[in-house]
Write a structure and sequence with these properties.
10 helices; 3 domains; 10% strand; 5-stranded mixed sheet; alpha+beta; Heat Shock Protein 90; single chain
Length: 357
């Protein structure tokens, strides 16, 4: 991995080697030596495979055995091989160092070893910095991933709470509707019957007119309560809970449900989807050899979609032959919807119904 750390360190080492070479050679410079070193160092920086790096280092070491002046730049070459996996092969680099130390004075040898030690320190520091940077990046990625996961879990929790709250409200509406029907409805029915009985035995025309008005008022109240009860009951039908109840009771084969409706559809659409799903699953049990059924409900800005698909083999059929399929078609068309039946890969019912205003 190339980084600004390595470029900076190599620049420092190269300048140190260059100064050492100029000072110890007493002004005698060889441009070829410097160019050869730059070429080898460039190759080490360009190639990432350690085997190639080892080959370049060995080549430089062997060349330095015959050209001792290259040893002045050996710390620059050794920088890339300090932490490689093939440390045993780097022993070859000791050979030109021994030859150089044997032919040089102790001050020059000490300075070369000092620059080599600086190279080791710089490489160690750069490696540690890169390791810390990689660890920091991993921590940032882990924190970002955890944040995304927490947001997703929080969203799922809020959706679950909203669903439970809406379900509780619908159940409460259903309970109120039952109580009104069972208590107030029965009382009004009894009052209507009693007023009718009084009208039968009454002989006074003035009282009879009052009884007729009373009976009409009671009938009006009864109709109003009946309409309110039906409205409460229709609103209390939760489409998702009802479909989950239907799919849980389906044990003929594997079932997959994908429910993507957030709002509460109109009662006619809810009853349509419930009846279609019941009929489709009944047909799977009676006529299909499928081992997997999927039900998908989606909500779009202008319409609802219902897709029921199984992987069974399909025989020749017609929507006019079966009463169930014909009823599906009639129900969908009554809501200005579209129904398509596909038999390419199994049996698929695709229904789209526009939202009501």
């Amino acid at each position: 991995m190339r980084s600004t750390f390595g470029i900076r360190d190599k620049a420092i080492i190269f300048v140190s080697c260059l100064i050492l070479y100029f000072t110890r050679q007493k002004g005698c410079t060889n441009v070829v030596i410097m160019l050869v070193t730059v070429i080898f160092a460039s190759f080490l920086s360009y190639f990432d495979k350690e085997k190639i790096k080892v080959f370049i280092t060995i080549s430089f070491s062997l060349l330095a055995c015959f050209v001792p002046e290259l040893t002045f730049y050996f710390p620059l070459i050794a920088y890339d091989m300090i932490y490689c996996r093939f440390q045993m092969l780097n022993i070859i680099g000791v050979i030109p160092l021994l030859i150089f130390f044997k032919s040089s004075d102790w001050r020059t040898s000490l300075l070369v070893m000092t620059v080599l030690l600086i190279s080791v320190v710089l490489k160690s520091r750069s490696t540690e910095q890169l390791r810390l940077k990689a660890r920091y990046n991993n921590l940032i990625d882990d924190a970002r991933e955890m944040s995304i996961r927490l947001k997703k879990q929080n969203k799922e929790l809020i959706e679950k709470q909203d669903f439970e709250l809406a379900n509780a409200m619908l159940n409460e509406r259903n309970r109120i509707a039952r109580e009104i029907h069972d208590s107030v409805g029965h009382i009004l029915s009894s009052a209507i019957l009693q007023s009718g009985a009084l009208m039968t035995i009454n002989r006074d025309e003035k009282v009879k007119e009052l009884l007729i008005n009373l009976k009409d008022t009671l009938n009006l109240a009864m109709d109003s309560i009946r309409a309110s009860v039906h409205q409460l009951y229709d609103e209390s039908v939760d489409l998702r809970s009802k479909i989950i109840e239907i799919t849980n009771s389906f044990t003929f084969c594997e079932m997959n449900l994908d429910y993507q409706i957030n709002g509460n559809p109109d009662k006619k659409i809810k009853y349509l989807f419930i009846s279609v799903i019941k009929e489709a699953l009944s047909n799977v049990i009676k006529h299909s050899d499928a081992n997997r059924v999927s039900i998908i409900l989606r909500e779009h800005p202008a319409l609802y979609q219902l897709i029921i698909r199984d992987n069974g083999s399909v025989q020749k059929f017609s929507t006019e032959d079966g009463i169930g399929l014909k009823n599906m078609k009639d129900r969908v068309e009554s809501l200005n919807g579209n129904i398509n039946i596909l038999t390419n890969n199994g049996f698929e019912i695709f229904i789209s119904v526009p939202k009501t205003e």
